[in-house]
Amino acid sequence: MQKEKSELSMDLEQLYQFDGENDPKILVSVCGHIFDVSENKRLYGPGKGYAFTAGHDITFMLAKMSLSEKDLNRVHFQLSDQEKDVLVSWILSYLSKYPVVGKVKGLEDLCEEEWTRGQEKFAKRETPNLPFSSQKIGKEQPTDSTQTDSGEKAKKPWFSWLGGFLK
C-alpha cells in the first residue's frame, strides 16, 4: 500500500495555497488524502489543462468524470455504484503515479470504502479500469465514428480526448 511520506495535515483552505502559483508544490486531494502531483507540471502546472484542480479536493469531480470547477471541493454527495467504481479506478491511478503526503482535516472519512478498495487494488498491482480505456461506463459506448448496431452514426464518448493526455 502507498505509504504517506510525511503526515501533512491541513484543511481545505490551507490546501488552496498549493496550486503551483506561489509555491512550487502542487497538491490535490482525493477522498481527503493529499497527493503531491508536482512532478506532473505539464498537466497540473499554472496555465495547464488541469491547473484548475491544483490545491483542491477533486473526489466528486473524478467520480462524475467532470471537468467542471463547480465540482471541486464537493464533500457532501451520494454516488451510484458505477460512480464509486470509477472513483476506485481513479484512486488506483493516483496511488500508482503520485505519493500520498497527508490528509485534509475534516475529510478523513470521505469515501472511506472506496479509498480502501483502491488501496487493496494498488497492493495487488491491478491496473486502473478507467472509462476512457477499453472499458466504458454503463451502457456500451461506441469508440469512433463508425456505425452502431442500430445503423446510426456513432459519436465518440465525450471523454475520449482524455486518452491523449494520459499516455
UniProtKB/TrEMBL annotation:
- Taking every annotated instance into account, which residue ranges of this chain make up the domain Cytochrome b5 heme-binding? 10-105
The protein's matches in Gene3D superfamilies, at most eight in alphabetical order, are given as: Cytochrome b5-like heme/steroid binding domain (3.10.120.10)
Q: Name one Pfam family in it.
A: Cyt-b5
Name the segments for region: Disordered.
125-167
A GO cellular component term found in this entry reads: membrane
InterPro entries assigned to the protein according to its UniProt record, in alphabetical order: Cyt_B5-like_heme/steroid-bd, Cyt_B5-like_heme/steroid_sf, MAPR/NEUFC/NENF-like
Q: Which PANTHER family match?
A: CALCUTTA CUP-RELATED, MEMBRANE-ASSOCIATED PROGESTERONE RECEPTOR COMPONENT-RELATED
What protein family is recorded?
Belongs to the cytochrome b5 family. MAPR subfamily.
Quote the protein name from its UniProt record: Cytochrome b5 heme-binding domain-containing protein
Q: Which organism is it from?
A: Reticulomyxa filosa
